[in-house]
User: Which sequence fits this backbone?
């Protein structure tokens, strides 16, 4: 299996990669960023390695609120908003100061005539709510009042196009000058919703860039699930999704963070926020729009932010433990489970049903989704057959045949399953009500959940949802996780188990990211040509600078020199044209392979130079290369993403790379474990293990190349636009990997 030598590789890998300045991550968990490490620390590319969680306490729980543009005139839009803000302020214990130039009072509260009057109040104003069409002048006035936070509801900014984007840039600049923090523009009143105070337990904190999309999660309160905060971020001229993730990850009452994200303002900020949540063990569940061109275009028109290349967004979320789901129903079900369920005692899932068909159906879907359904031991099966007829299958799924749930046997069966140490989750699909047995089954499951520290999930399949067993018994339990569909249950349980596996071994890549350039960087700088594509020869020199192995080869400019070079390199050889404008040489006939004699060398040289002249392609020479045949062809490269900057890709290589599209992506920094995970994500990863009699490939050498390429991405990210090593020939185990071709484009 891939990674089977992981335990013995680390020391050797460290020694080899440190030769070019790389320091692979250690297995020591560090919380330096949370315990006083310099938040201004930068990595080798000049990007932050840590960030402080913003203090938003006075935003969500202000002591003093100014409502600028307040009104109590009937029929005015601001009147309803003012009324809602006053009610919210009463709930959180804040004093309200209306501001309006022509009123002396609003809803019986003394009204200030100008923003400047806020500075004369006996108390500082924590939050200013701007009920104005143009917030820029008001923000500038607030600069002298020491207001900490402001909210702008006004629209017509980046979501409307270039003119609106320019207006938003002016607003953002005014906010920076003022020193306050702004929510919005193009936001709404969701932050000031009323949350139920009678619910207990860990809460969901909600972040949405479209307020209406948060409604399904907000209504979870009606099912007894607590919500603590709602941040409708709007266009994010200042405060962004990442700020709220960082803040919520530090709040003791928050059990999970649910997000609806249309676009990200800054990729690095998002990764740092996700890293903080992962360090603290707080799950982040997100719907991220933009899987399709239509979704990306619509999201951009709504909030004016970049959605980012979806493959990169997906990889970045997975890399930092953010759980991505597709539907709002999945968002609410998954966040609710993760917020309330304790860490699992085991990864094993047992499916328990009254129908063999139901159990088989659910088990099939669960197994396909990657859940582990262990076969119960023979002793456990014998125990269950005390109460279940012997002809029924109880290996997992457990089919009780129906009748035992109607009497004392039902609870015995549930308790016996939960007592198995291999079981961490019991799932009971009830496809439809059949009282009184379904009522008894639901009650037994609830009672068992109160007595165990293991997770019990129920799928109530009835489309009606008014049954007593569902509305009162199941939804009345804070210990049983109840779902309406098979799919949502599987999605949530997979996320639950995956989150706890991830956080149990999480090591922040930012802690060990390089902060100073390696000796390789100084060599590489001399090779870069701004705005140009490097020739293959120059690109391979770049790889050599970072310790990546290339074939024996020589660059020649005459047929006679080519013959001499072939003798030095060793027959058979490959000859290739090398020039700064050459990309895909094979299509132009500029590659000759398997040459075994001096006459073939001379003929090949003449043909290659003739083709180059005909195609009007300038050359810096002809490469005479060692021929490397035996191995697995891979591709490793660097590309730039609009949101996240340099990214590293690995996949199956060769001439079919565009057809196969079998690749995995990571955003630097990442460690050896993530490099190995990239390989296991590939559909073609069995090729690396050896198929049809082929020997296993040198996976360790491939991992080393990935880490060295990552170092290039980190150090050269500002000057390297693209790097493509294709093919990287991964030789049999113990023999290394060789970069047979390379393309590099400078910024």
Assistant:
């Amino acid at each position: 299996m891939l990674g089977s030598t992981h335990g013995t590789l680390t020391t050797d890998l460290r020694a080899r990669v440190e030769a070019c300045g790389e320091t692979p991550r250690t297995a020591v968990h560090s919380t330096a960023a949370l315990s006083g490490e310099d938040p201004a620390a930068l990595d080798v590319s000049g990007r932050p390695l840590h960030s402080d969680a913003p203090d938003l306490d006075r935003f969500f729980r202000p002591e003093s609120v100014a409502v600028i543009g307040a009104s109590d005139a009937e029929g005015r839009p601001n009147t309803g908003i003012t009324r809602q803000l006053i009610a919210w302020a009463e709930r959180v214990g804040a004093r309200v100061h209306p501001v309006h130039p022509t009123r002396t009072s609003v809803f019986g509260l003394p009204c200030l005539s100008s923003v400047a009057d806020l500075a004369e109040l006996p108390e500082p104003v924590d939050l200013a709510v701007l009920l104005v069409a143009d917030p820029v002048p008001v923000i500038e006035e607030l600069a002298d009042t020491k207001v900490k936070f402001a909210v702008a509801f006004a629209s017509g900014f980046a979501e409307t196009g270039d003119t609106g984007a320019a207006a938003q840039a002016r607003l953002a600049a005014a906010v920076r000058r003022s020193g306050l923090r702004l929510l919005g523009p193009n936001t709404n009143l969701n932050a000031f919703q009323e949350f139920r105070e009678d619910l207990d337990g860990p809460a969901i904190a909600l972040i949405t860039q479209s307020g209406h999309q948060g409604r399904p999660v907000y209504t979870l309160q009606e099912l007894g699930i607590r919500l603590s905060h709602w941040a409708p971020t709007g266009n994010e001229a200042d405060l962004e999704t990442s700020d709220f993730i960082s803040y919520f990850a530090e709040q003791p009452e928050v059990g999970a963070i649910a997000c609806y994200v249309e676009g990200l303002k800054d990729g690095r900020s998002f990764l740092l926020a996700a890293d903080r949540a992962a360090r603290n063990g707080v799950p982040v569940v997100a719907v991220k729009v933009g899987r399709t061109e239509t979704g990306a275009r619509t999201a951009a028109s709504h909030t004016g932010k970049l959605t980012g290349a979806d493959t990169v967004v997906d990889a970045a979320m997975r890399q930092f433990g953010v759980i991505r789901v597709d539907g709002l129903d999945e968002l609410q079900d998954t966040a609710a489970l993760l917020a309330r369920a304790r860490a699992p005692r085991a990864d094993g899932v047992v499916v328990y049903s009254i129908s063999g068909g139901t159990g088989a159906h659910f088990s099939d879907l669960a197994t396909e989704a990657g859940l582990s359904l262990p076969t119960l031991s023979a002793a456990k099966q014998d125990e269950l057959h005390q109460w279940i007829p012997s002809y029924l299958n109880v290996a997992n799924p457990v089919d009780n045949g129906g009748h035992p749930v109607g009497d004392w046997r039902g609870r015995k069966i549930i308790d016996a399953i939960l007592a198995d140490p291999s079981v961490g989750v019991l799932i009971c699909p009830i496809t439809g009500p059949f009282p009184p047995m379904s009522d008894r089954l639901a009650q037994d499951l609830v009672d068992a959940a109160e007595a165990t520290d293991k997770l019990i999930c129920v799928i109530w399949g009835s489309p009606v949802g008014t049954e007593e067993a569902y509305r009162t018994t199941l939804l009345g339990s804070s210990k049983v996780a109840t779902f309406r569909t098979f799919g949502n249950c599987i999605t949530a349980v997979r996320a639950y188990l995956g989150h706890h596996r991830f956080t149990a071994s999480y090591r922040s890549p930012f802690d060990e990211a390089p902060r100073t350039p390696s000796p390789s960087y100084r060599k590489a700088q001399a090779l870069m040509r701004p705005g140009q594509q490097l020739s293959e020869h120059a690109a391979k020199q770049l790889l050599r600078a970072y310790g990546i192995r290339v074939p024996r080869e020589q660059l020649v400019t005459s047929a006679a020199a080519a013959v001499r070079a072939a003798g030095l390199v060793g027959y058979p050889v490959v000859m290739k044209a090398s020039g700064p404008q050459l990309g895909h040489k094979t299509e132009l006939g500029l590659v000759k392979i398997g040459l075994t004699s001096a006459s073939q060398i001379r003929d090949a040289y003449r043909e290659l130079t003739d083709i180059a002249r005909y195609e009007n392609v300038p050359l810096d020479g002809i490469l005479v290369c060692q021929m490397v045949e035996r191995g697995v062809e891979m591709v490793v490269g660097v590309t730039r993403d609009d949101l996240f900057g340099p990214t590293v890709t690995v996949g199956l290589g060769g001439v079919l790379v565009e057809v196969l599209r079998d690749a995995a992506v990571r955003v630097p920094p990442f460690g050896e474990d993530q490099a190995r995970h990239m390989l296991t994500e590939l559909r073609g990863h069995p090729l690396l293990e050896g198929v049809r009699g082929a020997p296993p490939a040198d996976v360790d050498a491939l991992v080393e190349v990935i880490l060295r390429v990552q170092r290039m991405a980190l150090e050269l990210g500002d000057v390297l636009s693209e790097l493509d090593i294709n093919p990287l020939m991964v030789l049999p185990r113990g023999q290394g990997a060789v970069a047979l071709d390379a393309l590099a484009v400078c910024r």
Q: What stands out?
A: The two ends are 39 Å apart (CA to CA). The CA atoms of residues 375 and 395 lie 5 Å apart. The longest strand covers residues 720-730. The longest helix spans residues 486-504.
